[in-house]
Amino acid sequence: MQLLNPWFLLGTLAVIGPVLIHLIRRDDSRKLPFSSLMFVTRLPKKSLRQQSLRHWLLLCLRMAALLLLALAFARPFLVSKVAEPLRSSSDRSCIILLDHSFSMQFGDRFQKAQARALRLLDELTGRDTVQVVAYSDTTTVLNNLQTDRSALRTLVRDLRPSYRKTNHLGALKLAQRLLSSAPNDRQEILWISDFQETGWAEAVGDTTLMAGVSVQPFDVAENEGGNLSINQLRLSRVTENDTPLTRISIRAAASGMATSAGRVVLELNGKRMQEKPLAIQIDQSQLVEFDAINPPPGLAKVEIKLEPRDPLPADNVYRFTMNSVQKLKLLMLQEGGTQDGFYIAKALSATQDSPFQLESQEITQSGALDLARFSAVLVNNVGRVPPKLAGAIAEFVRGGGGLIVALGNRVRNGNLGEALDRVMPASLAKPGLLSKEKPRFISELQKEHPVFEGFNPTHHSYFMTTPISATVPAKPHLSSAVLASLEDGTPLLIEESFGKGRSLLFTSSLNMDWNDLPLKSVFLPFLYQLVKYSARYDEEVHAFSAGEVVPLNKLNPMLGRALNRISGTAEAFSQAWQITTPAGRQAQIAAADLVQSPFFQLEEPGFYQSRVHNFDSAVAVNVAASESDLKKVAPDKILASLRRVSRASTGAARTSEPTQDQQEAWESKQSLWWYLLLLVMAFLLVESLLSNRYYKGVHAP
Fold it and tell me: DSSP code of 136?
């Protein structure tokens, strides 16, 4: 015998109660009037320790009732006598996989899928077990094995298609895990889907299926269907008549259909701005470019719409936001009359789309600079830093600014290391340069670090093959991190945090004196990443995909500032902030929510709008482009690609210890706890009769 809820056995401790009651119970004394007590012998009164248990049968009945009650709540069931009948050839364990990804919104596909699932539920017998799994790129088990069938039908009817992508493989894997703990040997996967090809193309590697599990597909898509969608957006900045403008271009695709009289409409903040013709051949795409526009200041909400709409209208609209914020300001300090910053200036202002605004200053004329205007400071091959400026830089970094120090031949006899010692990630050696006669190469690169993670293996090889002819010896602090080092162990790029800011030290130069890195194709992106990382710069995200989980500070910059101020207690703010979904539902977020989970899930296309301390913001959400391709893959092709394996090889073999699902299935087909409750009631009835008999007349006057 096993127990479904063994923790309820702790209730057996309640048997102590009747024992204590029997020990401390004392009969009430009766007062009788008597003429004189002088001839009556005085007897000592019994104490509690002299009390002994009386009415043993009554005590046993009470204790047995409590024990049986605790056992009934623990839900006992028998395994040895029930396990074999449950595995009979007539009983089944079924998993119904119900696809509710975005492609199921095409036409009446999802309604057909619901009707099929309801018919399958009606065909099951009373001894069959069933679990329904709704899946897209995530999976949701709608019921456990104990759920009433009528309640399960209601869950299926109430299910709605999502806007998420499709992942058939993830659903199959979950179905196999559920069947590994099913109580019946006859196991089936009833698979209802439109069998979108992109949902199976994501499956990589060898896909397996447990031996003995049958898969029965139900295709609810009679044909692939035709669909128009927007799957690419590009924004570029241009200048006309000294006015900065933004040019918008999109790529529209036709899957399974063609259009010759369509149009693309551009709307800005709800106002119709431009319209372009659209003519696409079947299974082709078309690039549509709009005239350059001057977006209004602040946040702009843009919608690009395809007209006329098709049977899948949700992907006929592409939404994004534009924020005309100022560029990240970078201050470069260098010595006068030098060209050391030539390559840096060219790289950071290479295109109009550059997110940086570079300002150069001579180190001797920077004493009165307001560093608060800048996000990062780059000290490039400077030998001597005035003490006043060094103190301002240290305060700037600790307050949240970024510092990049690039060395060079001018550092040999200067005081750079001493002046910036408070915010330098390493101590510079006084002798100066190493030998320039033996070029060395980079041997170690922290490829997972944000500075290098965006580079592919080919770009990494460019770094590795760049000869470094000279560096300034530097000893990293214990709290520093070496991001790149040479083959002899010499640190090349060192990082350390100071207060709220970051400091990076490049022990070689960023010009052509000591290496030819400025001539490499990786120089520009490497410099971009250095500046962005030091200044904690986040790229503007114009749009997200449905199903993404994003930090709350992406929804509203004020939420990011609130996170910095919250110390871990809900008392940091008393005001709740509001997020409105595209469907109009409102979600209230308080400080405690930010501390517990500073993330938000975007489930539907449209604009998520938020207000924090009267500051309004919005983010755009669209359907994933891959989900708009309605091409199908034949279910037989999927099943043919599945390799059958034994349960032991998949780790799904039954063990001696039954799983929770098995226990629930076995216990649901037994009624031991009902009999225990009836026995408890019988014991209590006998106890009541005996109690009345034993204590009858005890309290009589």
Answer: S
The residues facing 491 across adjacent strands are 485
What are the residues whose beta carbons fall under 8 Å from the beta carbon of 129, sequence distance 6 or more? 91, 92, 93, 94, 145, 182, 183, 184, 665
For the stretch 422-470, pLDDT in tens is 999 999 876 445 545 678 899 999 999 999 988 888 888 889 999 998 8
Task: Judge contact between 381 and 409, C-beta under 8 A.
Answer: yes
Number of Cβ within 10 Å of residue 40's Cβ equals: 8
Closest CA to 509 of 459, 453, 536, 471: 471
First to last CA, the chain: 52
Q: d(Cα 476, Cα 491) in Å, to the nearest integer?
A: 8
Question: What are the tens digits of pLDDT across the range 229-287?
Answer: 998 899 888 878 777 788 999 999 988 887 877 899 999 999 999 999 999 888 889 99
- What is the pLDDT confidence band of residue 393, given thresholds at 50, 70 and 90? very high
Cα separation, 9 vs 376, in Å, equals 64
Do 513 and 610 belong to one domain?
A: no
Total tally of structural domains belonging to the chain: 5
Among 459, 585, 457, residue whose Cα is nearest residue 520: 459
Residues 376 and 488 occupy one common structural domain? yes
CA distances from 267 to 248, 296, 699 (A): 12, 13, 90
Question: Is residue 172 within 8 Å of 97, Cβ to Cβ?
Answer: yes
Same domain? For 362 and 467 the reply is: yes
Residue 392, domain extent: 328-534
Confidence of residue 594 (pLDDT cuts 50, 70, 90): low
- Is residue 27 within 8 A of residue 698, CB to CB? The reply is yes
CA distances from 533 to 202, 412, 451, 529 (A): 32, 28, 7, 6
Are 343 and 482 within one domain? yes
Residue 36 resides in a domain: no
